[in-house]
Specification:
InterPro entries: Homeodomain-like_sf, HTH_AraC, HTH_AraC-typ_CS, Tscrpt_reg_AraC-type_HTH. The chain is mainly alpha-helical. The protein has two domains: 217 residues, Rhopdopsin 7-helix transmembrane proteins, CATH 1.20.1070; 123 residues, Arc Repressor Mutant, subunit A (Orthogonal Bundle), CATH 1.10.10.60. Helix 4 runs antiparallel to helix 8 and helix 11 crosses helix 13. It is elongated.
Amino acid sequence: MLFLLLALVFGCNALTLYVLLKTKSDKLFDKVIRYVVWISLFHSAYAFLSRYYFEELPFIDRAAPFGLLYGPMLYFLSFSNHEKRLGRSNVIKHGSPFLVATIGYVIFLISPEWRRNYGLYYFEVLYSGVVVSMVGYVLYVFLNHKKAISDNRIRKLINSGATWLLLIASLLASIIVSKILRKEDIGSLLPGMIIYGAMLFVSFLIFKYSINNLLVKAGVDEESEESVPISAPRQYQKSALTVEILREYEQKLNTIMETEQVFLDTELSLESLSRKVKIPKHHLTQLFNTKINQTFYQYINMYRINHSCKLLLEEPETNLEEIAFKSGFNSKVTFNRYFKNQMGCTPSEYR
């Protein structure tokens, strides 16, 4: 059963990595996601091979310090969606506990004498360190929640990952109590099932996120929104929305666009905009179709293009791809297409 679980984790990560590489997103958050998937892919492969070929030596898998990577990965994911770069020193600082533990792990594997004399202390220090790391990073992320995670999809992904980290930390804490204090061994099957089950669940969430990004890049979401007719009065004939209410909605929408610049969120959707502006989604759709006479994407991208025009003049040294991301677009191709449709020339020609 454990081997099947590890195989599923590996397969899900491999498929997710393929989708992420296919998407070719340059967003920092998506780059960090790729690193997380690579780490999870290697971890699951390492666990599978060590348990399969060295079944009589379960400590090879149980003593591996991979757990020290997932807290920092949660941190990097949480804060990458609003920063331009993480910085090498920042990565080294948060990755140093894993590097130190890896050195100890290598010594643990190659020295039977060291393993006999200090093995118990090694597990105590390693598992305690993993518990402190996971709980500490989860608390830090939650304390900075609003600042770090503005997008709803990313928030759900981070929340799920944090929840599973707390579950794993609780499991490891119980192992420390059982093995160190009570001198009991709860075995490797149950912890393995919980840990790798959590990895499979989070891997599936990342897979869903990557598939959605691929669909957005391919324009599926835009086509579904664009396919709604601009003028569709017949379907709204029985609507309770009056002209005054629609006018109030439009003012409210324009205000939040101009003051909060929500259009700069590259993951903005009709649903998330509905929550931000506190207008029911079906009312917002009716507003676009009957009052504004634009689809959701036409309206949002109008603001994005206007913002990009300002950036093109104010930041002459910034390349066009970065201008696109700063303006809320997911890709340079989409940016160029909407810019030419609205302005009648390419961004480089406008500059």
